[in-house]
């Protein structure tokens, strides 16, 4: 690990390898021991956080990134919202991490059997503010429905398309685009398979 401006630094490729290796441990059940004690917490308080990856994912209780990638306190900067959609607030959170914390990798991670996507596929008028979520997912659903898919196949393909939509939003951010162009940031998509525990990475 090298240092940049006095901070520990790893490349986007190295960060991705850490996620892949961590997910492999999670799938096989060979998890690393974690230091969750007072000494570790005080170190993070005094020396600050240096997360090596931003994970944008769904609020679904079956998809906890720190567990899925077998990481510890301070390793991941997590942005969670139903349907892993990006609005201005969540995008600002990502921009903070990559610009101020110099995090070298951003992963948008959808997941198998996503309730937010399913609700969008089913349509209707959702109660309260849920419609603000389904409105952001609907373009992905419409694109997939236009090619003739239905049922579970429609939901799963729409989940993938929804990840791609969030990637498009990310890449339009001037902050993100600048860092990507300079080679200091990698942005990728992924899908978590709830049954197997495996995360599949894609561009």
Protein architecture, described:
- The chain has 8 helices and 7 strands.
- By secondary structure, the protein is an alpha/beta fold.
- It has a domain at 2-112 and 172-202: Carbonic anhydrase (Beta-carbonic Anhydrase, Chain A).
- The strands form 2 sheets. It has a 5-stranded mixed β-sheet with strand order 4-3-5-6-7. A two-stranded antiparallel sheet has the order 1-2.
- Strand 3 (53-57), helix 3 (65-68) and strand 4 form a beta-alpha-beta unit.
- The longest helix has 22 residues, at 151-172.
- The chain is globular.
- The model has no long low-confidence stretch (mean pLDDT 94).
Topology (elements, then pairings):
Layout: E1 2-4, E2 7-9, H1 12-28, H2 38-47, E3 53-57, H3 65-68, E4 76-80, H4 88-100, E5 105-111, H5 115-122, H6 131-145, H7 151-172, H8 174-181, E6 186-192, E7 199-202
Parallel strand pairs: 3-4, 3-5, 5-6
Antiparallel strand pairs: 1-2, 6-7
Helix/strand structural class = alpha/beta
Considering the protein shown, what is the CATH homologous superfamily of one domain?
Answer: Carbonic anhydrase
Secondary structure: helix percent? 40-55%
The total count of strands amounts to 7
State the helix count. Answer: 8
Q: What oligomerization state is this entry in?
A: single chain
Strand content: 15-25%
Major sheet description:
5 strands, mixed
Rg calc:
17 Å
Regions with little confidence, pLDDT below 50 for 5+ residues: none
What's the CATH class label of one domain? Alpha Beta
| Biggest sheet, spatial arrangement of strands | 4-3-5-6-7
